[in-house]
Specification:
Layout lengths: L4 E7 L3 H9 L9 E8 L4 H12 L3 E5 L3 H12 L4 E4 L5 E2 L3 H11 L3 E12 L3 E3 L6 H6 L7 E4 H6 L14 H11 L3 E14 L4 H6 L3 H11 L8 H12 L1 H13 L1 H9 L7
Parallel strand pairs: 1-2, 1-4, 2-3, 6-9
Antiparallel strand pairs: 4-8, 5-9, 6-7, 6-8
Helix pairs in contact: 10-11, 11-12
């Protein structure tokens, strides 16, 4: 029997967490699924031992040289038989309501490609992991969709998978992946329920690699998708408006800042144009 969904789990030196991730997978009997674990070149002896044991227990475990999260996910998805893909980081957990909802939604809404849910933090800190309803505008400004989303494998194939460039090893591979899908016209659905648990423990990749290099990563994404993104456009637009007529621009800016209702009224009455 062919599974309808493939759960792909990259693992790099986190063998002490992966059993918790696997134990969290709870899927109804009417939904066939498979689990593919990719050992992304782990060097930790305990991790290697744990993964060898999981392989003996019947789990599909593939070992490769270290390629980073993007490369590990692409390897697993290439092997996947499922129509839908769920990436699960090996230190996180999935909640039982998520997969049935996502599969049912995608089966009944063929025009959608991605279902993402709400997260909950656990470990060093607890609380909700922020997300929001989907708009492309908000996604361009910054990522709010975790890797733990369910998407169609054919959508992944249509954009060539996750970006495996060296730059993406510093993080934001998920953000670039979601942007790429959105720019190609694929639709996103927000499942407004707690769907997965996101572990915070020690120094994260975000703290160590992503945050210090965020501007470099943002510039990389802007250059790759320059047809759609120009982060300097708002500043350039404002500068052009000011140069065209400084007194009028300053008058509108004062109205907008200190008298927003009056500004809105004048715009609606076509007395002034928007800034």
């Amino acid at each position: 029997m062919i599974p309808i969904i493939s759960i792909v789990i990259p693992c790099y030196n986190h063998g002490h967490f992966i059993k918790e991730a696997l134990e969290s997978i709870s899927v109804p009997d009417n939904i066939l699924f498979e689990v593919i674990i990719v050992d992304d070149g782990s060097k930790d002896p305990n991790t290697i031992q744990v993964l060898e044991q999981l392989k003996k227990e019947g789990y599909q475990v593939v070992r490769q040289e270290n390629k980073g999260l993007s490369g590990a996910r692409n390897t697993a998805i290439n092997l996947a038989n499922g129509k839908y893909i769920l990436p699960l980081d090996c230190d996180n957990k999935i909640l039982p309501n998520y997969i049935p909802y996502a599969v049912n939604f995608l089966e009944n809404n063929p025009d959608y490609a991605v279902v993402y849910g709400n997260g909950e933090l656990f470990g060093d800190r607890t609380g909700p992991k922020p997300t929001k309803e989907f708009t492309l505008h908000d996604l361009i400004i910054g990522n709010f969709i975790d890797a733990c989303a369910v998407f169609r494998k054919d959508a992944w194939a249509a954009i060539g998978g996750y970006d495996e460039s060296k730059m993406m090893r510093l993080g934001v591979e998920d953000w670039e992946f979601w942007l790429h899908l959105a720019f190609k016209g694929f639709k996103f659905h927000h499942y407004n329920e707690k769907s997965y648990l996101y572990r915070l423990s020690g120094t994260s990749m975000v703290d160590k690699d992503t945050s210090p290099n965020f501007n470099l990563l943002k510039n990389y994404i802007e250059k790759k998708h320059s047809y759609y993104i120009n982060y300097n456009a708002p500043g350039e637009y404002i500068a052009a408006k000011f140069k065209a007529n400084p007194p009028v621009f300053l008058f509108k800016l004062i109205l907008l800042t200190y008298f927003p209702k009056k500004y809105k009224e004048l715009v609606e009455r076509l007395k002034i144009k928007r800034i």
